[in-house]
Amino acid sequence: MDKPWLTHYPAGTPAEIDLSGGQTLVSIFEDSCQRFARRSAFSCMGKSMSYAELDRKSAAFGAWLQKSAGLERGARVALMMPNILQYPVALFGVLRAGYTVVNVNPLYTPRELEHQLVDSGAEAIVILSNFAGTLEDVLSKTPLKKVVVTDFGDMLGFPKSAIVNFVLRRVKKMVPAYSLTGHERLNDVLAKGESLMLDRPDVTQDDLAFLQYTGGTTGLSKGAMLTHRNMTANLLQMRAWIQSIIEEDNPEIVITALPLYHVFSLVCNCMLFMSLGATNVLIANPRDIPAFVKELAQHRFTVITGVNTLFNALLADDGFRALDFSSLKWAGAGGMALQKAVAERWYEVTGGLIQEGYGLTETSPVVSMQPTGSDIVFSGTIGLPLPSTNVAIRDSEGRDLPPGESGELCVHGPQVMKGYWQRAEATADVMYEDGYLRTGDIAIMEESGHFRIVDRKKDMILVSGFNVYPNEVENVVTQHPKVLEAACIGIPDPKSTEAVKIFVVPESGQSPTAEEIIAFCRENLTGYKVPKHVEFRDDLPKTNVGKILRRALRDEEMARHA
User: Fold this and answer.
1) Phi, psi at residue 525, to the nearest 5°?
2) Contact 222, 216 (CB under 8 A)
3) Measured between alpha carbons, how far apart are the two ends of the chain, in Å?
4) In 3D, which of 108, 113, 222, 137 has the Cα closest to residue 530?
5) What are the domain boundaries of the chain?
6) Domain 4-11+23-369, CATH number (from 3.40.50.12780, 3.30.2350.10, 3.40.50.300, 3.40.190.10)
7) Is 21 left (phi over 0), alpha (psi -120 to 50) or beta?
8) CA-to-CA distance for 285 and 539, rounded, in angstroms?
9) Which of 25, 139, 308, 311 gets the most CB atoms within 10 Å of its CB?
10) Which region, left, alpha or beta, applies to residue 182 given φ > 0 means left and ψ of -120 to 50 means alpha?
């Protein structure tokens, strides 16, 4: 197929990446640990961990999984932590031992956690103690054999570790009491692992590296199977894209505020910059803007990634606007559409551009990105496809459309997932026979090869970069004893792009309140999925076969906001 975008590539950017060497995330990691042993790999709350230390600790954890936990090759291991030093230790330990990582959002409710653990068949989990109570509620219903618990400050070094853990547990009461029979402490596990030898399995590009869960239109999330080839390909694609502005000899300082359990941050921060010998500065709670800005002031950071809402929140802070941005080389945005006002304000404050990208969990994740070296503050496009990536615009019959015509954006490349875990039908629904992935997003290709999103998946709601699928919210709400029917849509929100709104038809003779509905949702849904607005109705618009017409509700809402 024609690739008009190649003529607009940044100078020196290859059209294709080379995967013939058999690189995997493991081989790239171990090479980095050898080449950059003395450099700081990760930093959190003033404590740095060198590549050499990360190498040693991750090997110890991997050896423990093999020898003490007794997991078979290919077993799934869940990680349920925010951005703390324990995460990369566990992450690379799992991968080096030949296992598959199952990333878990720490804010999951018991219902969500149970589904993901059961669906993935995870046999072990590393979890921050703050969330251990959630696991306690469902542990007996899961296939878990080993539970490893860590406290927030465990790797911050004495006396900071003791102080932080005491404050969180005793003062701020952020660690609820829990009982997990037979659980082990991560520091104890690492001590045991130090005396064991890591068996080095022959990890290949075809091995499954991650089960990365994404929202499900049926109300249940699905695990995208991301192989070492998928993830390594996207790492190399991004490395080729930014090579002109990155220096290995002068280590980059990368601000990692987005959670590493999210595939965007996982690849574009952790994996990519680890391969370049950079330091990832981990921000555990980016919602605390004053504390976040205080941490930023401690570093001459060169790279920062985020979503539109995060950039917007930073720009609203006086302390952030007063920072020194002279070292900043690259700001990358993804997860949600970058707004023109935010891009322009960022340029005004920092003197630099935000390079917007586009991707999906199913594409490991990056498909396209604004070219480096551009002087356009805001283009309104999602940029150009990365090397070795083909993007086609197709009609409802699967036929390719010419530039200027809108259709479904479809992607082919080495970063496209193997499929959905144990869901052959769901995989077939999104994959063409020629290997192209159907994104569900409606886009136009310009003559230049730049792509522009004109509409999104019909029903998906985008809240601060996170996907919310209406069926899941509806399934929860309709379990309330006072609810007969429910319909969920997204409505415009200046802070989060969209907010979740639920339309509720009460059971006959019942009069639930909005507060009741929201409280019930908080018990069963992660915070960003909880409806912000509740509207009660006598009935809902439906097709002649009884299917609820969400589109009609959206049209009403849009007319109301017009």
Assistant:
1) -135, 145
2) yes
3) 41
4) 108
5) 4-11+23-369, 389-455, 461-561
6) 3.40.50.12780
7) alpha
8) 41
9) 25
10) left
Residues of the chain where predicted confidence (pLDDT) is lower than 50:
217-218
What is the DSSP code (8-state) at residue 431?
B
Residue 215: its pLDDT value, please? Answer: 62
- Cα-only R_g, the chain: 23
> Cα–Cα distance between 122 and 131 in angstroms, integer?
17
CATH architecture of structural domain 389-455: Roll (2.30)
Query: Which tokens is 259 given?
Result: 């959670």
User: What CATH number should be reported for the domain whose range is 461-561?
Assistant: 3.30.300.30
Residue type, 348: E
pLDDT at 219: 58
Positive/negative CA dihedral, 554, 559, 560, 562:
positive
CA 499 to chain CA mean position, Å: 19
User: How many C-beta atoms surround the C-beta of residue 527 within 10 A?
Assistant: 12
pTM here?
0.88
Total number of residues shown for the chain: 562
Please report the pLDDT score of residue 455 as a whole number: 67
Locate 116 and state its tokens: 């993901």
Burial of 405 (0-12, 13-18, 19+ CB in 10 A): exposed
User: Does residue 484 sit in helix, strand or coil?
Assistant: strand
- CA separation (Å) from 4 to 8, 15, 253, 390, 434? 8, 11, 34, 11, 21
- Neighbouring residues of 364: CB distance < 8 A, sequence distance ≥ 6: 226, 230, 231, 233, 234, 263, 267, 415, 416, 417
**Cα separation of 355 and 371, whole Å?**
7
Q: What does each C-alpha distance from 106 to 55, 83, 113, 220, 309 come to in angstroms?
A: 25, 10, 9, 17, 20
